[in-house]
Request: fold
Amino acid sequence: MSFVSKRGKSAKLYPRAFEASKTLRKATSDKAISYISMMPTKIKHLTELISQFRDSKDDVLKDCIIPTPSSGPGKNDAILMTNKKLSEMVKIVISESRELIEIYECWRMWIQMHTMPIEDGQGFGHDVQTEVMTDIASAIDNASALSLSSTVFHSDRAKMVEKICKYPKIENFAEALRVADEMEWRDMSNAIITMRDDACHLLDLVQKNRRHLENPFGSSHHLHHSMF
Reply:
């Protein structure tokens, strides 16, 4: 029995479940397609952020305020400020990575809903779906790792500031904080570049293979050159 025949039989046996599945498929497809349409705008935004991050190094170093003995914990209720510019960059990276993960997860579900059984003999259509799904999974892993690394920024920096307050006469701790802030600036700048590059690659891949992703039964081997 073919995959199409099985679906027809399921529709007769479980009409409500079939209609619910059909509604979900349509909603997911509509959302996935809307993401395809808006992705060029997202890529443009990420490109602009790359430029902004690259030009922010001086501001990051300026905001790296080294605490003094008079500004330490318990001194006149002093509040040890974080690096505001760097914190802003970290928030942006976390926000952008989460938005991209949402888009990629939607694309993955959209493709899964159109996945065909390999036994139907449409090997090429299945290969296209597998390749695209693999690249989507890689992009999700990248975005998740960037978001996770960004969230530990404040705790790691707080430990360095605590050491400076505890040992104010050891200049190496102060210099280590400056170096750490500069390295974080570089990491955040590279994070935006990675997200932009992944977004460009996946958009190109999905656009070129959209027909095969949505209708793998219509794929044929002689169309293999269109991928990538």
About this structure: Residues 100 and 143 are 7 Å apart (CA to CA). The two ends are 33 Å apart (CA to CA).
